[in-house]
Design goal:
38% strand, single chain, alpha+beta, 21% helix
């Protein structure tokens, strides 16, 4: 359904450090830098972080979350730990199992250094 996801940043170097660490736990290679943007290219899609083209400050969307698929709860925990170590902040409940309409999920939430809300998700 999606070809790519792009979010904004006010500090490309900080964003690259954060996402290299977090996405590295999922087996994604470090970002390719292209001017004012960085790209993580995988067989299943592209995730990109960009300084806004219009020169205005980047802002985090309120109510939005970007989810990253994990193969195990341990991978989600590693993702979360890498994110906190690279300047992210934990948010929501601590990493763990949640039950709901989608069945049992293992979830871990972070905010990146620009305030974007992220989630590591493992379907149990």
């Amino acid at each position: 359904m999606f070809s790519h996801i792009m979010i904004g940043t006010n500090n490309l170097e900080t964003a690259k450090t954060f996402y290299d660490a977090v996405l590295g736990t999922l087996g994604v290679s470090p970002a390719r830098v292209d001017g004012h943007r960085i790209f993580y290219i995988t067989p299943t899609g592209i995730f990109s972080v960009s300084q806004p083209i219009n020169g205005e400050p980047a802002t985090a969307g309120n109510g939005g979350t970007i989810g990253f698929a994990c193969t195990t709860p341990a991978q989600a925990d590693a993702w979360h730990a890498a994110g906190v170590a690279a300047g992210g902040t934990t948010c929501e409940d601590p990493p763990g199992v949640r039950e709901g309409g989608q069945g049992k999920l293992y979830l871990a939430y972070l905010r990146d250094p620009d305030g974007n809300k992220l989630c590591a998700l493992h379907r149990m």
